[in-house]
């Protein structure tokens, strides 16, 4: 009780301090034409109430965090709701069935606009899971991931424009091109890590974007490529609404396929090598793991998903230009992985839905989008540096034979 009173007292001090600091900006408005001073006391009340609430919430969360750290130090096991959700069959099986049913019904219950938004969110789910291989599992900070996305999109657009190749023919070619570019990026950065790796990958992403923007004969420059055909279904003519629903289900299938493959990769020999590389590169090499092959595999497989999704993106929008593949896209995909939890499949899915759907449904705050990104990231780093749902650390126990 004493602690709570102390927290309330400190929050009141913070609120008063913020009201004092923002007083000249938020309260006083001078109209020089009419020579009138307007006093906006309601703004002062809003600043006071907001800063008091945020300060109190911050202190509450800090107290909960300290309690959690103390429990962990004393060896007391505390299972969070997310852990229970993933481990208890009585919870996750009904939840999975409800999600599957909702996904099937969604395009028939909502408008084409809502279906388009959900398809975009699913695209970012697959992109996040692809980057999760590189950043979350292998621990290689890649800030140029959008380049592979652009490679896939332009592969479909250019092959269709020059040779008339269809969506289903180009989809594996886009994946292959993504993998090749992943290896091309992976070779020069084999000896790099940390900040240096981030700078080089950022430069790679910008090089790809600048080539697309300035090489007009090859990529049609900033004008982009239009009239890219949507994916076909055995030659059936589809209306715009039917095509939207078809691409939605295509993305559902792609997401399930990606989750299956990434989950299998996590538990495979190469997946354990990625995790070992992420935890300690020197120890990983000392244990006999081929560091070169492990890194190149991570870059190639991560880029494969970006290449495939790039093809689907080009088919969905029917128009692409370099403005769709800026550094901001890489930052959003990386934010999805960090917010969701590096190495966690469920976490990345939740992170993608939060970061893609929230700005769409909160358009009133679109001007503050980047500010919200920054605030969410700072809060996450303070209270949950491991993300919304952290990857489960595997432990192995060896028991002597009786």
UniProtKB/TrEMBL annotation:
Q: Give TM segment ranges.
A: 12-31, 43-61, 91-110, 116-135, 140-159, 165-187, 194-212, 243-262, 296-319, 331-358, 370-392
Molecular function in Gene Ontology: branched-chain amino acid transmembrane transporter activity
Chain segments annotated as coiled-coil in the UniProt record: none
Q: Name one GO cellular component term.
A: plasma membrane
Provide the primary localization: membrane
Localization of this protein: Cell membrane
Q: Which UniProt keywords are given for this protein, alphabetically ordered?
A: Cell membrane, Membrane, Transmembrane, Transmembrane helix
Membrane topology summary: Multi-pass membrane protein
Name of the protein in its database record = ABC-type transporter, integral membrane subunit
The record lists the lineage as:
Bacteria, Pseudomonadati, Thermodesulfobacteriota, Desulfobacteria, Desulfobacterales
């Amino acid at each position: 009780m004493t602690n709570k009173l102390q927290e309330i007292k400190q929050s009141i001090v913070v609120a008063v301090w913020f009201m004092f600091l923002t007083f000249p900006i938020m309260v006083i408005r001078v109209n020089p034409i009419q020579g009138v001073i307007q006093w906006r006391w309601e703004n002062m009340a809003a600043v006071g109430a907001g800063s008091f609430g945020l300060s109190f919430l911050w202190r509450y969360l800090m107290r909960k965090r300290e309690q959690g750290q103390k429990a962990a130090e004393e060896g007391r096991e505390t299972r969070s709701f997310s852990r229970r959700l993933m481990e208890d069959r009585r919870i996750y099986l009904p939840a999975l069935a409800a999600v599957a049913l909702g996904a099937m019904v969604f395009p028939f219950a909502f408008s084409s606009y809502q279906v388009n938004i959900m398809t975009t969110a699913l695209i970012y789910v697959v992109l996040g899971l692809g980057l999760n291989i590189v950043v979350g599992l292998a621990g290689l900070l890649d800030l140029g991931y959008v380049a592979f996305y652009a490679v896939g999109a332009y592969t479909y657009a250019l092959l269709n424009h020059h040779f008339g190749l269809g969506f289903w023919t180009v989809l594996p070619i886009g994946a292959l091109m993504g993998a090749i570019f992943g290896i091309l990026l992976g070779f020069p950065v084999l000896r790099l890590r940390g900040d240096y790796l981030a700078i080089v990958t950022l430069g790679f992403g910008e090089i790809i974007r600048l080539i697309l923007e300035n090489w007009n004969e090859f990529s049609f420059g900033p004008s982009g490529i239009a009239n890219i055909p949507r994916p076909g279904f055995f030659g059936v003519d589809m209306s715009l609404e039917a095509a939207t629903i078809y691409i939605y289900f295509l993305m559902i299938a792609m997401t399930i396929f990606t989750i299956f493959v990434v989950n299998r990769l996590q538990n495979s020999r190469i997946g354990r090598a990625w995790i070992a590389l992420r935890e300690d590169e020197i120890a990983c090499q000392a244990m006999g793991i081929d560091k070169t092959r492990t890194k190149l595999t991570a870059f190639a497989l991560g880029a494969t998903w970006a290449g495939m999704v790039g093809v689907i993106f080009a088919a969905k929008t029917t128009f692409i230009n370099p403005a769709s593949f800026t550094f901001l896209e890489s930052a959003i995909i990386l934010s999805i992985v960090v917010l969701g939890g590096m190495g966690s499949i469920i976490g990345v899915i939740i992170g993608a839905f939060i970061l893609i759907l929230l700005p769409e449904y909160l358009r009133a705050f679109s001007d503050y989008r980047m500010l919200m990104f920054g605030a969410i990231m700072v809060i996450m780093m303070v209270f949950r540096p491991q993300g919304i749902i952290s990857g489960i650390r595997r432990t192995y126990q060896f028991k002597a034979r009786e």
